[in-house]
Amino acid sequence: FTSRPVPPANIHIGDTFTLNCQVAARPAAAVAWTRPPLNTPITTNTTHLTITSLGLVVTNVVQADMGQWSCSATNSYGTVTVHFQMNIQAASNAPAFTSQPASQTVGVGARVTLRCQAGGVPSPAIMWEKDSVDIDLTAAGLQWIPSTGTLTILSASLSDAGSYSCTATNAHGSVSAAATVAVEALAVITPALRNQTVVAGNALTLTCRSTPSLGVRTRWLLNGMVVGMASALTIASTALADGGQYWCEATNSAGTARASLFVTVQALPTFTTPPSDVIILAGSSVNVPCRVSGVPPPTVSWVLGSTTVQNTPHVSIGGDNTLAIVNADTTISGAYTCVATNAAGTARSSAKVVIIGRVTFTTFPQDITAVAGKGATMACAATSDNGVISRTWYYPNDTRIDPTADSRVAVSDGTLSFTSVD
């Protein structure tokens, strides 16, 4: 051999190089090559192996090229062979992350998963730190799975909050990645919610504060329906339908805190049937109704002047708040006021009760003869025991004469006047 094949000292996957093998012989010798495995003959050129006059060109070394190779020279006098070993060095790579930990916010008791995986040659070692202090990966409450690069905090506490750093190291260097873990406690609604009472039509504001306040989402519910998405709920003009149980929900990563209060909407008393004026004769009876509504239901009393009406033989108040006058006496005439009261306030409505005493006619109506189209007058005068007199005129068919409905008619002090007779 005038040159023997000597592979490079450091061969890596992907390398390309030439193995020289030249022979001086007479007669000329034929050169042959073998390769691993099992001294496989190289008989044809490929993109990977090419035989030239100088030797063998190996292109793009692969792992299967590692092993014993040989170059043989043969002529009529015999064969000589040189064997050599090709060793392939593993590639050298600094660490590089394939997955990194991600920052997250969790609630107390939650499971926290931090992932950190890195590639490199040789395989890098993984180290964890919390707030620049090494983490004991065997500590209680932690789970470290190297095959998946997963560090798990099984049940987070407030003390687990901090900055977590993952470092991957091999002989060629190191890389680090960090993530922040924030741990939140369940929000506490404080101060405690208090029941509210409001009069219908007035404004109402409900406030729900929580600790901590940052990162908390607050909403209000009434009868299971969301009615507000802020810590303060304002109703500009309340209605009865706004009453009920309100729930405040304060939600963060740790969960949802709930508290409730009752809103009572009151309505001022309103007269559905107010009392009306009545005029009756002494000895007669009459009912003066007074019906009211309100929330809560109002209590009703009657007042005559400034004196509360009590049940007497002539006046009584029924269960439906009706003022009943029996066998009326002229002494009970006056302005009666129905007073309705509840927690929202008081309403009053009055009516005049006129009791007419014994009446004596002093002037009786007289028959008259009138000319059509001309005026006519008829007089009627009377006195009563208490001076209270109400005079009413009727047509011959017993229809009451209403001066407000007929412009031809006027009644003054009992005198009936026609401006034009039909």
Describe this structure in words.
The chain is mainly beta and 422 residues long. Strands 21, 24, 25, 27, 28 and 31 form a 6-stranded mixed sheet that branches. A hairpin with a 5-residue loop joins strand 34 and strand 35. The termini are far apart. The model has no long low-confidence stretch (mean pLDDT 92).
Question: Notable features of this structure?
Answer:
422 residues, mainly beta, six-stranded mixed sheet, five-stranded mixed sheet, 0% helix, 52% strand
Can you give me a brief rundown of this structure?
The protein is mainly beta and 422 residues long.
List the helices and strands and how they pair.
Blueprint: E1 11-12, E2 17-20, E3 30-35, E4 40-42, E5 49-51, E6 55-58, E7 67-75, E8 78-86, E9 88-89, E10 93-99, E11 104-107, E12 112-115, E13 117-121, E14 125-130, E15 133-134, E16 142-145, E17 150-153, E18 162-170, E19 173-184, E20 188-189, E21 196-199, E22 204-207, E23 210-211, E24 217-222, E25 225-228, E26 232-235, E27 244-252, E28 255-273, E29 278-281, E30 286-288, E31 291-295, E32 299-304, E33 307-308, E34 315-317, E35 323-325, E36 334-342, E37 345-356, E38 359-363, E39 376-378, E40 381-384, E41 409-412, E42 415-418
